[in-house]
Amino acid sequence: MTRGNELGELMLDPDEAQRKMDQWAAGLEEKAQRYAAAQERTEQLRLTATSSDGAVKVTVGADGGVTAIDFGNKARTYPMEELSRQILATMHQAQAGIANQVAEVMQESLGDEDQETRELMIGTLRSRFPEIEEEEPPGSEPAPPPPPPPSDSTPPAQAPRDRRHEAPEDEGNSPW
């Protein structure tokens, strides 16, 4: 039987046409419910990472947004630049697991349905939140920066600046 004949038969049997439409609508409703459940579970996802020394713990949601930052006692001993670096590194570590967690939720909720859409979405998440490659073994200290080259002479004297046309330096500390 060809598709044209099926349509013709449905038009001859309005009750069969109604049953087919009801089945189609029920299928769409079930699909919408599965997607709504997957969305709800995804919105509830929380991923947490802790720095190797326990100084920083960062929790993120499935959208990558930070939902919590906690500091261990060791964080107090860090210079601000190092603490900032630790926060960002730990945040990226937590975000790196987002794509896998969302993929798991999608697989559990939707099975093999809409593979193309899922692959596109998970690919986008992987590009936004790439997996972290381990740079150094945990607990190792980064190498200190090289010392500055020795200087044999004193720097040349600078001419005084003409400050008549400059804005006061203490106005809001704006970079603009």
TrEMBL record:
InterPro entries: YbaB-like_sf, YbaB/EbfC
Bias (Pro residues) ranges: 139-153
Region named Disordered: 124-176
Pfam family of the protein (one): YbaB_DNA_bd
The protein, known as: YbaB/EbfC DNA-binding family protein
